């Protein structure tokens, strides 16, 4: 399993700070230029473990509804394996499906059309917004989270993925099941050189692993963000 070299998971207090920050508040801050992706990408990263480039490439037809719930497919255009994960109820409750249905363009086009590239990568633009650059503070610093802690460990957008991985491991341990295939499938990695198919997993267990991810803050709402913007 590939480690998040140099990155640590966010602490519980840091997660609360991020999802209670100005993006998820009732007020704009000075000189802020809010974009839809700034609201949705941290939430999607927390609940899917996908990396920033994968999330930036999600299209409307990557969201599906069957068996009475919504799913998202990530990894179709990345070096990681494609995987389909159930959408956590917090995303539904926050208005993700309603927001998605309002987005223009064909089903094949990216949902986050307001996210530009930098150096030919969407992830670079996300990094600059989230972690800042030099003297320019990012969202993380504006939530009083340093990019490097007192022990020299770093936090970044990829820390959400580290949190997700830790959650899968902890839940599998609690359920007394081997985490190897569940980790490989949900993170898009390989086991002994081979990708893991969803057919190799117990689907109710997979759903439980996602559904048991904690809601990071109360009153997270797209409508609240939209009202704040306008």
Strand order, biggest sheet?
1-2-3
Number of domains: 1
Task: Tell me the β content.
Answer: 5-15%
What is the C-alpha radius of gyration, as a whole number of Å? Answer: 17 Å
Identify the CATH architecture. Orthogonal Bundle
CATH class: Mainly Alpha
Mean pLDDT: 93
Q: Helix/strand/pairing class, anyone? A: mainly alpha
Shape: globular
**Low-pLDDT segments:** none
CATH topology: hpI Integrase, Chain A
Number of helices: 11
SSE blueprint and pairings:
Layout: H1 12-18, H2 36-48, H3 52-56, E1 63-66, E2 69-74, E3 83-86, H4 89-94, H5 96-101, H6 122-131, H7 139-142, H8 159-175, H9 180-187, E4 190-191, E5 194-195, H10 203-211, H11 222-229
Helix pairs in contact: 2-8
Provide a descriptive summary of the structure in words.
With 230 residues, the protein is mainly alpha-helical. The chain has one domain: hpI Integrase, Chain A (Orthogonal Bundle). 40% of the residues lie in helices and 8% in strands. It contains eleven helices and five strands. The chain has helices at residues 12-18, 36-48, 52-56, 89-94, 96-101, 122-131, 139-142, 159-175, 180-187, 203-211, 222-229, and strands spanning 63-66, 69-74, 83-86, 190-191, 194-195. The strands form two sheets. A three-stranded antiparallel beta sheet has the order 1-2-3. The protein has a two-stranded antiparallel sheet with strand order 4-5. Helix 2 (36-48) runs parallel beside helix 8 (159-175). The longest helix is centred in the C-terminal third of the chain and has 17 residues, at 159-175. It is globular, with a radius of gyration of 17 Å. The protein starts with 11 loop residues before the first helix and ends with a helix.
